[in-house]
Automatic annotation (TrEMBL), chain A:
Recorded superkingdom: Bacteria
Species: Roseomonas alba
The keyword Iron-sulfur is annotated on this UniProt entry: yes
InterPro entries attached to this UniProt entry: 2Fe-2S-bd (IPR002888), 2Fe-2S-bd_dom_sf (IPR036884), 2Fe-2S_ferredoxin-like_sf (IPR036010), 2Fe-2S_ferredoxin-type (IPR001041), 2Fe2S_fd_BS (IPR006058), Beta-grasp_dom_sf (IPR012675), Diverse_Oxidoreductases (IPR051452)
Keywords: 2Fe-2S, Iron, Iron-sulfur, Metal-binding, Oxidoreductase
Protein name: (2Fe-2S)-binding protein
Keyword Cell wall biogenesis/degradation part of the UniProt annotation: no
Chain ranges of the 2Fe-2S ferredoxin-type domain: 6-82
UniProtKB/TrEMBL annotation, chain B:
Database matches in Gene3D superfamilies: Aldehyde oxidase/xanthine dehydrogenase, a/b hammerhead, Aldehyde oxidase/xanthine dehydrogenase, molybdopterin binding domain
UniProtKB keywords: Molybdenum, Oxidoreductase
UniProt protein name: Xanthine dehydrogenase family protein molybdopterin-binding subunit
Organism, scientific name: Roseomonas alba
Residues of the Aldehyde oxidase/xanthine dehydrogenase a/b hammerhead domain: 35-149
TrEMBL record, chain C:
Domain of life assignment: Bacteria
This protein's UniProt keywords: FAD, Flavoprotein, Oxidoreductase
PROSITE patterns tied to this protein: FAD_PCMH
InterPro entries membership: CO_DH_flav_C, CO_DH_flav_C_dom_sf, Diverse_Substr_Oxidored, FAD-bd_PCMH, FAD-bd_PCMH-like_sf, FAD-bd_PCMH_sub1, FAD-bd_PCMH_sub2, Mopterin_DH_FAD-bd
Keyword Oxidoreductase set for record: yes
Location of the FAD-binding PCMH-type domain: 1-176
Name by which UniProt lists this protein: Xanthine dehydrogenase family protein subunit M
Organism: Roseomonas alba
The keyword Oxidoreductase appears for this protein: yes
């Protein structure tokens, strides 16, 4: 009974993935293994590091702290969905230009968190921005360049919006 | 969080001499990483793979009575369960060459045999169809351990390790000069007892090992490798009784190394042995709790140090006895951290006499090894605490005291009668006093003292401190690079180095671009693969830019010379008037005709070209850079801290790292290294510690208990990169930049906390915990 | 770190959920999952059945009526944090929420989940104690109310029968012009607090303290109302000296000890945070602070 399989559909970056999983399979594992989207990384599997951050109905959540069955039919966005073809999102570009990544392992989580911030509160103040970014761990950069990248992306988006 | 000096510099695609080295260009590594298209260990999958789960000891020390895997084996989907009997023929995991004798009996078996020696030690391995299932089965393995008392204090007298062996495998002794005479004639003797807490690299990606055996080619592959591919390949081959050419290691993306990842661990051998024996690809991904228990710890040392000084505060001698808590086994580094600590302790100071005894002690904790600035984070804390204590005792300004003792530029290269990592210590170049002045100026030290005084007058508890450090980098003896231009003009650079995420590809490409005269962004860099280059020394000890960078320089120069030599007769010009820009051989004087592309030259040099008859074809060169001595970067850290009197919490408000690295190939990446290194140093100074209870149970096994600094803990960091003292030991003058950001953080913050408390010498232990600070505040209260 | 197997149940109504609780052995409710999921992943919790409340109707919502704030158990922490009605009527809760985990966890975490997980340091439990909340509990026999003071039975153990579940929390509102403050000390932002303090003050027309609430989180198994401090405050004119004296009541309380902090340190933090919270609450009551 405990290994009963559930047929669900994960809608990731607009594409439906009909999958069959045990109830205990985390959303993060299902995205990675069943949907084959390995950009979402696992850094702790206990909800502290934020590497597995994805957007669930446009809200950032930790994919290791949900079961896949709970996300059945919900709109999920992952790092693979940020770029449009060859065109990187302003935040992806800013991460490269501001050297906001080194090993790149935490990067997808920060990109998804940053994307949500830019969508919901592009004029966010520094203090609140730092507070929100403190939810994710990075072991390489010391964070300053990540902050800088989010600000640079916000500025670029403002400019684009004006133009 | 502010204060960068370099932004990206991509307006020009670096394409030739003077245009690639020294520029803050963006990284070649980034595009796949920001798209989620990286290939980290967990992203590697093979058809028919099975998953390994390791059953680990839950007691710190005990006799292993029995391991019953019956129930686990019976679980549907379980392929095999191994205990030590199943891997009895695999020898213990070795350590790299060292002149320290007698370490072999202390090496770790792949699976525990008759004893367990730390919580987390591998006891059994479960192989199953699915990672969830493997964990289910691992829970069913019944382990019977008879507890023994745990040894937890490395400074306590040694205990028994095994019959006839005690827990001190060796004492590393170094020294020079007449220490006893110096102490006898000293104006003053200053003595301290200082401790550094157990913490470690803790990369955000846990370890992983994916092994598969290709019977068709009789080839064993290990994916998820890092850092030391070639040494690991050779050892895996030896331990499994195979020729090295039948084993290949592959490095994909690596989610941070910091010294701990890429060493040869039990799990690597288990995965390889299982892939051979079970005839299925085997995937092992460490979970975070395992990472805290099973991946190398570091840093824990206690020093009892004495200094003899004259009346002006000049060092006459240092005498240090320290205890290094190695944890349960000797791992691949052997006694390297002790050796580094003993050899690097004197730092930047003139020292007539020195004696050190490093007690290498085993305890019942996770085995330890190197972590970014190994042996230096610890001894910079110790040495700089000592300098501050001398200054206090003699009532000399601590900065002036340091000035009096710094090795002068005129004394460079400055040989110390010491060796470290088997090479003689010769401080190769430096202007220590100049960098100290620059750092004080940049931090605004004078104005800062005034503002601190004003803030104290209004009741705040603030203080500033600084520390000087000397790093080491560019460990030899050799590294090789092969550069090939193919018939499309694409440049491939194959290196024996590795990358742990620091930007190696970009840096090597920049050096290649500069020397060869091509754009850096099109260069394909291959590293971390044993199947592409026969030898390599990997990525550690801040050696890649120095060693592989120098080899790249030489190989690219050689390819350039070949290209010019081939092109000159075809263009009917002398090679001397030619140069290469953007991959086109053309006249130096700027005339665009005649010209020839590298692609055309490569085709001329192909194996079917009549011109190549009797010669080795290809526009390609492999060069090896050799070095007998390390090169020594140096720097100054300055910290401003504010203490909350109510909670004892220390907040670092401002911080400066000034670091002379000889030459910055990419200043943006250097700053990134320093900033990230600083964050790790900050962790060790204030937050991170692997704690154990009195029975040896680890208390820091989640990210909620092991406190890595987050964005809120980061102060405003300023980075001053100096290039005043290029290394004379390599063609580009490079010194490593990987560890200077970490090295002196504990030392500088300790000094600043002392200053804030108005209690010189108050801080004796890292990390500095709020409760400890509160006790110190109580001590000062009237 | 993969959860052990369990049977998954997905009820649509409270009645169904309660029926499942009554019928199933070793079942646990899954609310936001932000505390339970790590326990499952680390295999320190082994339920045979998980009953997911995320699709249960009617458990979500915030209402302010007749001086009472009612929050449905499955209301996300983020919704509470962003609720204008709560910011206006019960700003202590808004302030406390900024300390609860992080944006991602608040997007999933629920108030009911926090209450039932009952971590000694949980901000929302401390706030509930400070505000004399009432917990609405549904069971096979219908609904009952549990006063927050009676809700914790012991360390991380709520006063719920196996077949019962929390459906809402009711909070009697303080007068509009009350002063409030929530303060905590954690090693890093977003971590569980070592100690937290909640203070509420109402001043009378003469400027004396008419009503006071002082609550500590993280010192014992459950939030602690420091009634000695409250008694010391009421009827007095607020001064720094008075707040120091009231805070001193916290130094003698029994505090727990764990790897994060020894008992003496928690006692010291309790006093310091209480004093600071009272000063801030006073400044807010007089309109001198936002």
């Amino acid at each position: 009974m405990t290994h009963e399989l559930h047929d669900i559909t994960l809608v990731v970056n607009g594409r439906s993935h009909p999958i069959r999983v045990e109830a205990r399979r985390t959303l993060a594992d299902a995205i990675r293994e069943e949907c084959g989207l390995t950009g979402t990384h696992l850094g702790c599997e206990h909800g502290v590091c934020g590497a597995c951050t994805v957007l669930l109905d446009d809200q950032p959540v930790r994919a290791c702290l949900m079961f896949a069955v709970q996300a059945d039919g919900r709109a999920i966005r992952t790092v693979e969905g940020l770029a449009h073809g060859d065109t990187l999102s302003p935040l992806q570009k800013a991460f490269i230009e501001q050297h906001a990544l080194q090993c790149g392992y935490c990067t997808p989580g920060f990109l998804m968190l940053g994307t949500a911030i830019l969508e919901q509160n592009p004029d966010i103040g520094d203090e609140e921005l730092i507070e929100i970014l403190s939810s994710n761990l990075c072991r390489c950069t010391g964070y300053a360049n990540i902050l800088r990248a989010v600000r640079a992306a916000a500025a670029a988006m403002r400019e684009e919006g004006v133009a | 969080m502010d204060g960068t000096t370099h932004g990206p510099d991509d307006a020009r695609m670096a394409a030739g001499p003077g245009e690639a080295v020294g520029r803050a260009v963006t990284r070649l590594e980034d595009p796949p990483l920001v798209r989620g298209r990286g290939l980290f260990a967990a992203d590697v999958n093979f058809p028919r793979q099975i998953h390994m789960r390791v059953v680990r000891a839950e007691l710190a020390h005990g006799l292993l009575r029995s391991v019953d895997a019956t129930a686990a084996r019976a679980l549907p989907g379980v392929v095999a369960v191994w205990t030590s009997a199943d891997v009895a023929e695999i020898p213990s995991i070795p350590f790299r060459a060292t002149k320290v004798q007698g370490l072999e009996p202390y090496c770790q078996p792949v699976l525990a045999r008759d004893r367990v020696r730390y919580v987390g030690e591998p006891i059994a391995a479960v192989f199953a169809e699915d990672a969830y299932l493997a964990e289910d089965a691992a829970d069913l393995v019944a382990v019977d351990i008879e507890p023994l008392p745990a040894v937890l204090d490395a400074a306590a007298p040694p205990a028994e390790f095994a019959p006839g062996l005690h827990t001190e495998p060796t004492i590393v002794r170094k020294g020079f000069g007449d220490v006893d005479a110096a102490f006898a004639m000293a104006h003053a003797v200053i003595e301290l007892d200082l401790s550094v807490g157990r913490h470690s690299g803790v990369p955000l990606e846990t370890r992983g090992a994916i092994a598969r055996y290709d019977a068709a080619r009789d080839l064993l592959e290990l994916h998820g490798a890092a850092k030391k591919q070639h040494w690991n390949r050779d050892e895996i081959a030896r331990l499994l009784g195979r020729p090295p050419s039948s084993v290949h290691l592959f490095e994909g993306h690596v989610g941070g190394g910091f010294g701990v990842r890429g060493e040869l661990y039990p799990e690597d051998l288990l995965a390889c042995a299982a892939a051979l024996r079970l005839d299925r690809p085997v995937k092992w991904i460490e979970d975070r709790r395992e990472n805290f228990l099973a991946t190398n710890h570091s840093r824990q040392q206690r020093h009892r140090i004495r200094a003899a000084v004259d009346a002006e505060g000049r060092l006459l001698a240092i005498d240090d006895v320290f205890f290094h808590d190695q944890g349960a086994y000797v791992r691949t580094h052997g006694a390297r951290v002790v050796d580094l600590a003993a050899g690097m302790l004197p730092g930047p100071y003139r020292l007539p006499a020195y004696r050190v005894a490093g007690h290498f002690r085993l305890t019942n904790k996770t085995p330890a090894a190197t972590y970014r600035a190994p042996g230096r984070y610890e001894t910079t804390f110790v040495r700089e605490r000592l300098m501050d204590a001398i200054a206090t005792r003699l009532a000399i300004d601590p900065i002036e005291l340091r000035r009096r003792n710094l090795v002068a530029t005129a004394e460079m290269p400055y040989p110390r009668p010491l060796d470290v990592l088997g090479s003689d210590v010769v401080l190769d170049s430096g202007d220590y006093a100049k960098l100290l002045d620059q750092a004080l100026d940049r931090f605004g030290w004078k104005a800062l003292r005034e503002s601190i005084a004003a803030r104290r007058a209004s009741g705040e508890c603030v203080g500033a401190g600084l520390a000087f450090f000397v790093e080491k980098s560019g460990l030899g003896p050799s590294d090789g690079v092969r550069i090939t231009v193919d018939h499309t003009g694409t440049v491939e650079l194959v290196s024996g180095a590795a990358s742990v995420g620091q930007g190696v590809d970009t840096v090597l490409a920049q050096i290649c671009a500069e020397a060869l005269g091509v754009g850096y962004s099109g260069i394909r860099v291959v590293r971390g693969r044993t199947d592409r280059i026969e030898f390599g020394n990997g990525a550690h000890a801040s050696r890649v830019t120095v060693m592989s960078g120098s080899a790249t320089w030489q190989a690219a120069q050689a390819v350039r010379a070949m290209a010019l030599e081939t092109a000159a007769p075809l263009l009917q010009l002398s090679p001397e008037v030619l140069t290469i820009r953007d991959g086109i051989v053309q006249r130096k004087d700027g005339a665009t005709e005649p010209s020839m592309t590298l692609a055309e030259i490569a085709r001329q040099m192909g194996p079917n070209s009549p011109a190549m008859r009797g010669r080795t074809p290809g526009l390609t060169a492999e060069k090896w850079f050799w070095s007998d001595h390390m090169t020594y970067p140096y720097g100054v850290h300055c910290a401003l801290v504010c203490i909350d009197r109510g909670t004892g919490a220390v907040k670092v408000e401002r911080y400066l790292v000034a670091n002379d690295i000889g030459r910055a190939i990419n200043p943006m990446l250097v700053e990134g290294q320093i900033a990230g290194g600083f964050a790790q140093g900050l962790g060790g100074a204030l937050y991170e510690e692997f704690r154990y209870d009195e029975t040896g149970q680890p208390l820091s096994t989640t990210f909620a208990d092991y406190l890595i600094p987050t964005a809120t803990e980061m102060p405003a960091l300023d980075v001053l990169i100096a290039e005043d003292a290029p290394s004379p030991l390599n063609p580009l003058g490079i010194k490593g930049a990987g560890e200077g950001g970490t090295n002196a953080v504990g030392a500088a913050i300790a000094a600043a906390v002392d200053d804030a408390l108005g209690q010189p010498g108050a801080v004796t232990t890292l990390p500095i915990l709020p409760g400890t600070v509160m006790r110190l505040l109580d001590r000062a209260a009237p | 770190m993969k959860p052990a197997g369990f049977a998954y149940h997905d009820p649509q109504t409270v009645a169904e959920a309660v029926a499942l609780l009554g019928r199933l052995e070793n079942a646990r409710l899954l609310a936001g999952g932000q505390s339970l999921m790590p326990m499952l992943a680390m295999r320190v919790a082994f339920p045979d059945h998980l009953i997911d409340l995320n699709r249960v109707e009617g458990l979500d919502g915030i209402t302010v009526e007749q001086g009472v704030l009612r929050i449905g158990a499955m209301t996300r922490q983020r919704s509470i944090e962003r609720s204008a009605a709560i910011r206006e009527a019960c700003p202590l809760m808004t302030e406390a929420l900024t300390h609860v985990g992080h944006l991602q966890t608040r997007n999933r975490g629920t108030i009911g989940g926090s209450l039932c997980h009952l971590d000694p340091s949980a901000e929302l439990v401390t706030v509930a104690a400070a505000l004399d909340a009432t917990i609405e509990v549904a069971g096979p026999e219908g609904q009952r109310d549990v006063a927050i003071a009676d809700f914790p039975l012991g360390f991380m153990t709520p006063a719920l029968a196996p077949e019962e579940m929390v459906v809402a929390i009711r909070i009697p509102l303080w007068p509009r012009e009350h002063g409030y403050s929530f303060m905590e000390f954690a090693r890093r932002h977003g971590d569980y607090a070592i100690v937290s303090a909640a203070a509420l003050l109402v001043l009378d027309s003469a400027g004396r303290i008419a009503r006071a609430s002082v609550t500590l989180g993280g010192v014992g198994a459950a939030p602690l109302r420091v009634t000695t401090a409250e008694t010391a405050l009421v009827g007095e004119a607020p001064t720094p000296a008075l707040f120091r004296a009231a805070a001193a009541c916290c130094e003698g309380i029994e505090a727990m000890e764990d790897p994060q902090a020894p008992a003496w340190y928690r006692q010291r933090l309790a006093a310091v945070l209480t004093r600071r919270a009272l000063e801030r609450a006073w400044a807010r009551a007089t309109g001198e602070a936002a």
